[in-house]
Write a structure and sequence with these properties.
Blueprint: H1 13-43, H2 51-59, H3 65-98, H4 110-125, H5 130-152, H6 161-183, H7 187-198, H8 206-209, H9 213-225, H10 227-233, H11 237-242, H12 247-269, H13 275-287, H14 291-316, H15 324-343
Helix pairs in contact: 1-3, 1-14, 2-3, 3-9, 3-12, 3-13, 3-14, 4-5, 4-6, 4-12, 5-6, 5-12, 9-12, 10-14, 13-14, 14-15
Length: about 350
């Protein structure tokens, strides 16, 4: 009778086991925190409202100024949650597709590409409908993402994190400069475009949100379905192909989901940076690298971050407000520097 072989020791198990046990807890806590952030978004602003007015505004009984303020904040809160979830999820997918810890719709120039495409459409083609904004932004985001990846892959070796970050930063600067050059001589569109370029949810309306829902739904579905493929890609292209994964198709599907998400969010809110960088990094510390858990938790974290940033912008400049894009940039820039130093990314 042969002896049974001893099981191989699980090297990473002691470190991962606590996080695996807490994954469901973090998901539930994220949902609770999202509800709390939404309540803060509805209750705080130029006018702080109580629970009675909050419930009255949500139920449609607009009998007081406070209840009317709540009713106006409802689409703003919904848009902040949707855009934050879209940016957080797209950032996690981009990091998985490129295997780049610095990937983010803003850092890779995807947001800037979407913004440039929208400005070109407004200035030269006279687009006005929300649907036209959405399609234009998505095409611009896809073109910018493909360009950055192509430039980052030039030369010897694959597209390293540093190459992609540098190519994305250069693309974002170039796209932003072209956007300014197009807008400056056009006084008829300058005011609206400049306000949109900052990135914010202050002008949210149901007329702007509803056309974006199909694009966001498709982006969410493609991204979440790609979780298993992203886990396999994390092992390396050769090993992933050996496991039966069609690498090019898997990458294209996941990238399409990310482009739909950040393109739709940019079209409605303007370019908002660093949410897609901060949310996945925070969630990776909580739930580990498995994309089956990382993707939904990143979406929750992105929604919470953008809602809280919007509330902070209203409270800091009260009775006025700071656009949420300014708040996320103020918080995200130091975070980006910290991540770069922590990862010790080396230039080739």
């Amino acid at each position: 009778m042969s002896a049974r072989p001893a099981p191989e020791p699980a090297v990473a198990e002691p470190a991962l086991a606590p996080r695996r046990r807490l994954r469901g807890v973090w998901l539930v806590l994220g949902a609770v925190a999202l509800a709390g952030a939404a309540a803060l978004s509805l209750g705080f602003g130029a006018r702080a409202v109580g629970w009675a007015e909050l419930l009255a505004g949500l139920s449609g009984r607009v009998e007081t100024l406070d209840a009317a303020a709540v009713a106006v904040r409802v689409p703003r809160t919904v848009l902040a949650a949707l855009a934050g979830a879209a940016l957080g999820l797209s950032g996690a997918v981009m990091q998985g597709v490129t295997r780049n810890p610095l990937a983010d719709p803003g850092i890779l120039g995807v947001n800037a590409g979407a913004a440039l495409a929208v400005v070109i459409g407004v200035a030269w083609f006279g687009i006005e409908s929300v649907g036209a904004y959405l399609w234009t932004a998505i095409l611009g985001a896809a073109a910018a993402g493909a360009f950055v990846y192509a430039v980052g892959s030039l030369g010897r070796g694959a597209a390293t994190p540093l190459r992609l970050a540098l190519a994305g930063a250069a693309t974002a600067i170039a796209a932003s400069s072209l956007t300014v050059a197009i807008v400056l001589p056009r006084a008829d569109i300058a005011g609206g475009v400049r306000a949109w370029q900052v990135g914010g949810v202050g002008g949210a309306s149901w007329e702007g949100i509803l056309p974006a829902l199909p694009f966001l739904a498709a982006g969410f579905a493609l991204s979440l379905v790609s979780a298993r493929s992203l886990d396999q890609l994390a092992l390396g292209e050769e090993l992933a192909a050996g496991l039966g994964l069609r690498v090019a198709r898997a990458r294209a599907a996941a990238a399409l989901g990310a482009v739909l998400l950040c393109g739709a969010a940019t079209a409605v809110c303007g370019p908002i940076g660093f949410v897609g960088l901060a949310a996945p990094h925070l969630c990776r510390l909580l739930v580990g690298p498995s994309h089956r858990w990382l993707l939904p938790v990143s979406a929750l974290a992105g929604a919470i971050l953008l809602l809280l940033a919007d509330v902070a912008g209203r409270l800091i400049a009260r009775p006025g407000e700071l656009d949420v894009g300014l708040v996320t940039a103020f918080v995200g820039a130091p975070l980006f520097i910290w991540i770069v130093r922590r990862r010790k990314v080396r230039a080739l």
